[in-house]
Specification:
The chain is globular, with a radius of gyration of 22 Å. By secondary structure, the chain is mainly alpha-helical. It has one domain: Sodium:dicarboxylate symporter (Proton glutamate symport protein), CATH 1.10.3860.10. It starts with a helix and ends in a 21-residue tail after the last helix. Helices cover 73% and strands 0% of the residues. It has 21 helices and no strands.
């Protein structure tokens, strides 16, 4: 067997090609393969809550300095807000420069409102809740409920409290910390087994998509989708690339290092499907456990860069397509509301449409029924959303770690250059904290 096909990346690429061929040649059969993709994501989701808990608790207990952990958290949140704001403004700017919706002249009376019925309740709930409601939802009704629902932010909150308490009890907490470390090692082993099934998951997901929608549908997506993909590329290589360069690293090398995970996300349109592996790879780079454990799970809800671009771009597109004039006040409202609503996107069914509807709910000038236009191409935009969000969170982790001195730069550069000589098990086993002030 060629060396390329012996690697996970090669197997995933092969599965991607086979899935497309099956979708074209036997669409009826290809659609029936959907459970393969769903089962793979479910297997990954199964261990995410416990894995996040173990990584965060082990990281905080290993750090021993609660002030440093708090400092990392604050810097991460500041970074999230700044970069998210840039993403929102990029979406607005490109929408006004390119004007993808101008000339469509859509009569809102001709749009089918029933297509939005399944999203309406969630949108109204999200829009009416506001910041206070979102913050209250971070507190689980019980610890068991947080793990049962797989709510990463609720699990993260409990893990931070647990890790801090473990640090405070000192020597008496050593046995518990050791147990959690052992459990973390076991979970990463399980993840290593599950990730070998990624080619099957990719095959099922891409075969279903091509079989149902047809490869030709890619030609009919229009200027909005093309512009959105261009916007995400600009954001990744210009904005995030510049940020990475300031931190002393290369965005291109990071993308090459994460190519297997990015390929899986491309096929499944779900960044959840690679969360454990992403955390393992960042730790393998030499980034401290506690930093990875805090930034990545939090970023999944607070740092949705590509999602932010989508919200503002789609909102202006709908206004242009329906010939709705948008004032400067409306634009500022979109920015302000999006900063809040985008934080509740992760884990909401049909999150993209739901959050966009919640955003438009606060801007009566733009007809919410125009969402039907976006709904028809949402899945294809979801590919770029998932990829952009994942890349944004990986960059955030590297940057915050650089600020705090929580990354072994020699090891990180060696890994990104492909010169790290550790065996494959190092990619899935928890790394010990390597940085020191």
């Amino acid at each position: 067997m060629p060396r390329f096909l012996r690697s996970l990346f090669g197997q995933v690429v092969l599965a991607l090609v086979v899935g497309i061929v099956l979708g074209l040649a036997a669409p009826g059969f290809a659609v029936k393969l959907k459970p393969l993709g769903g089962a793979f994501i479910s297997l990954i989701s199964m261990i995410i809550p416990v894995l996040v808990f173990c990584v965060v608790v082990h990281g905080i207990a290993g750090a021993g300095d609660l002030k440093r952990v708090g400092r990392v958290g604050v810097k991460a949140l500041v970074y999230f807000e700044v970069v998210t704001s840039i993403a929102l403004m990029l979406g607005l700017a490109l929408a006004f420069i390119v004007q993808p919706g101008v000339g469509m002249n859509v009569d809102i009376k001709t749009l089918d409102a029933s297509a939005m019925s399944s999203y309406a309740a969630n949108a109204d709930k999200l829009a009416s809740g506001g910041t206070v409601d979102f913050l209250l939802k971070l507190i689980p009704t019980s610890v068991v409920d947080a793990f049962a629902k797989g709510d990463v932010l609720q699990v993260l909150l409990f893990a931070i409290l647990f890790g801090c308490a473990l640090t405070m009890v000192g020597e008496r907490g050593r046995r518990v910390a050791g147990l959690i470390d052992d459990l973390s090692t076991l979970l990463f082993r399980i993840m290593g087994i599950i990730i070998k099934l990624a080619p099957l998951g990719v095959l099922g997901a891409i075969a279903f998509t091509v079989g149902k929608y047809g490869i030709g549908s890619l030609k009919q997506l229009g200027m909005l989708v093309v512009l959105y993909y261009a916007a995400v590329l600009i954001f990744v290589f210009v904005i995030l690339g510049g940020i990475m360069r300031l931190a002393g690293f290369s965005i291109v090398k990071l993308l090459k290092y994460l190519r297997e995970e990015l390929t899986i996300v491309f096929a499944t349109t779900s960044s959840d499907s690679v969360l454990p592996q992403i955390m393992a790879k960042l730790r393998r780079m030499g980034i401290r456990d506690s930093t990875v454990g805090l930034v990545i799970p939090t970023g999944y809800s607070f740092n949705l860069d590509a999602f932010s671009i989508y919200i503002t771009l789609a909102a202006v597109f709908i206004a242009q397509a329906t010939n709705t004039p948008v004032s400067m006040t409306d634009l500022l409202t979109i920015l302000a509301v999006s900063l809040v609503t985008s934080k509740g996107a992760h884990g909401v069914p049909g999150s993209a449409i739901v959050v966009l509807a919640a955003t438009l709910h606060s801007i009566p000038a733009i007809p919410a029924i125009g969402l039907v236009l976006v709904l028809s191409v949402d899945w294809f935009m979801g590919i770029a959303r998932a990829l952009g969000n994942l890349i944004g969170n990986c960059v955030a982790t590297v940057v915050v770690a650089s600020w705090e001195g929580d990354v072994d730069r020699t090891r990180a550069h060696a890994v990104l250059d492909g010169k790290w000589t550790a065996d494959e098990e190092d990619a899935v086993e928890p790394a010990m904290p390597v940085a020191a002030h």
